[in-house]
Design a protein that fits this description.
Layout lengths: L2 H28 L1 H12 L5 H31 L1
Length: about 80
Amino acid sequence: MNIAEMREVLLWCVIFNVGIVVVWAMLILVAKGWLNAVVLRWFRVPAEECDRINLMGIVVYKVGNLLLFIVPYIALRMVG
């Protein structure tokens, strides 16, 4: 796999992961009650913690996306 192919793969990973974050955020905005019910059923946490769990999950996911896909993509763009 050459550098151009790696850049393309990383770009598609970024696009896919940003799409997941957008869907997750839309679920929080639109279907908050349903999403909280799912979290409460799966993890048995207090209702007050549902928003914190979702927001921290989004933050961790975005940081992972930044470190694993966006930074290597930028580095490969700089190299070639």
